């Protein structure tokens, strides 16, 4: 399909069908296939470790139905100002000391606006980079100029998730469109940054919806360098507070299919690890996950204890990239 854009190529029906067929395979056959692909493209004993920090929490004008930080829902979260640069730098230093190789700064913004706050974020990125960490930010929508400024400040990755399928999107978010998301991803790519883009399982989507999301991610050219697969952390007060937990086997299925469809991408077993057993996490790594969030906190919700993660990786014979 000819396209002038690197990011907005729509998945062909065949791509969706291929993803659906993978998801329908017997679980262990699928995991074996994914593990084989994983070994052709990655060192299966290495795990990339990112640490998150919410640099601007709460009060967001978007209505993402899963999010603790949307101003549309009463989740009990206190709205905070942008953190001071020295606080962010201290957190990045601690993340590095704890074994993270990438530091990801998240802001509850609908979009970036030029001004003092953005200038401050640009300085944060520069200082984190100087510590010798990879840098990542997730700040909502960005235009071409803003993406360029982020790249010039030293930003390696921009996280902007598609979250779910195009067909399910407006059941989850009404304040922006799927094409808005793709536009930002395009701007990020044009500025030469790497893309971190994935989704959330447990938003009331069907299995076909998961296939659509996977096909949408896999159709990006080039494919995202980093693909986070989040398991919904149900937040009281949000429209999705009563969604049942995604079964671990379905999470493994999606990770395995993602590994086969995006062989070179780093695949992150992302939010939702707190509620996953060690055995289930082991299966996720077997299926090709090779990246996690480390540290006690994600953005506004807890993550597994660092000591427990270190013990789990050691038990499985895995090592952080920074080792
Ligand atoms: N405001 C920016 C945006 O939406 O792009 C950046 C921050 S936002 C919190 C980053 C991503 O976190 C979302 O796209 C979503 O995939 C993920 N996320 C947010 N709340 C979540 C939850 N309760 N469970 C799982 N993932 C979640
Ligand atoms: C991503 O895919 N997951 C991260 C990161 N990108 C920014 C965020 C997870 C947030 C989980 C809910 C919370 O802690 O607020
Ligand atoms: Fe705002 Fe991002 Fe949360 Fe949506 S996911 S409400 S854009 S912080």
Strand content: 5-15%
Rg is 18 Å
Q: Which whole number gives the mean pLDDT?
A: 95
Structural class: alpha/beta
Helical fraction equals 25-40%
Distance between the termini: 43 Å
Order of helices and strands: HHEHEHEHEHHEEHEHEHEHE
The biggest beta sheet is recorded as:
10 strands, parallel
Regions with pLDDT < 50 over 5+ consecutive residues? 1-5
Bound molecules: S-adenosylmethionine, 6-(5-methyl-2-OXO-imidazolidin-4-yl)-hexanoic acid, iron/sulfur cluster
* Approximate shape: globular
3D architecture notes:
With 323 residues, the chain is α/β, with parallel strands linked by helices. It has helices spanning 13-23, 27-41, 85-97, 116-130, 144-153, 169-172, 178-190, 207-218, 248-261, 278-286, 306-316, and strands at 46-56, 102-107, 134-138, 157-159, 194-196, 199-201, 226-231, 266-269, 291-294, 319-320. α10 links the parallel β8 and β9 (291-294). α8 packs parallel to α9. Residues 1-5 have low confidence and may be disordered. The structure holds S-adenosylmethionine (SAM), 6-(5-methyl-2-OXO-imidazolidin-4-yl)-hexanoic acid and iron/sulfur cluster (SF4). The site of S-adenosylmethionine (SAM) has 17 residues, from loops.
